[in-house]
Amino acid sequence: MSTDRIEQTIEIDAPMDRVWSLITEASELPAWWHSIGSASLDLKPGGKMLIRWKEHGITRGVIERIDAPTRFAFRWSTRDDQDPAPGSATLVEFTLEASGEGTRVQVVETGFDELEQSAEERAAAHAENVRGWREVSEWLRERSERQVA
Amino acid sequence: VSAPSTVFAALGDPTRLEILGLVGAGRETTATRLAGLAGVSRPAVVKHLGVLERAGLVDRRKQGRDVHFRVATSAVSDAASWLDARAEAWADRLAALKAHAESDEQRRRAGETDG
For labelling, which of A5, A95, A125, B111 has a CA lying 20 to 30 Å from the CA of B9? Predict the structure, then answer.
């Protein structure tokens, strides 16, 4: 199993254009992404993204792709108040798709294996080289649960 | 519970992984029995068990002259949840997006009916 990628999908009973605005307009973000205090987005490839978190800190990113109303992708830094750079950023891709009268939203975040900023992530990548660490952990957990039972 | 980095470092050695698996296979086991099963010397097994124990992956229990080892489940599930937590954060955000978009949409539809 990959340690590089996570994926989530949800069905929303609202039109695609509306969902698109909620995701891509800086003024709309804090209304549903509750940890965001304020945000600014320069909506073009290479445009800058800045998120000011309610609690503390700033996350900076760069828009990678914007094709209204279906594809929105940005690379964001894992370091506070720094521009995304190799080793300290992941790629987030939103894909919207009409689903009946509603919208299916998929989020994929990739690039975790490239991260260098913490011991956990380095170690995770290392363990992955030996054997898929989640696979191993699952296997161990299964055994442990059998053991408890 | 140890930091995830300690856990991953402990899991990063194939022999140690094998030993951990063998510990998990039974209810409890001893270093001597593990040495036989893994085909590794007893001192080597004891060393590996030490690393696993410091990472919080195995617990030891003394019974008379014997020391019994078993898998400590909490550390194992912490390691497994490293990426799950990130995925969970997106699931939460999307659920919040859905709730917001749908309540907006209901208001808009109600408005259309009124108008």
Answer: A5
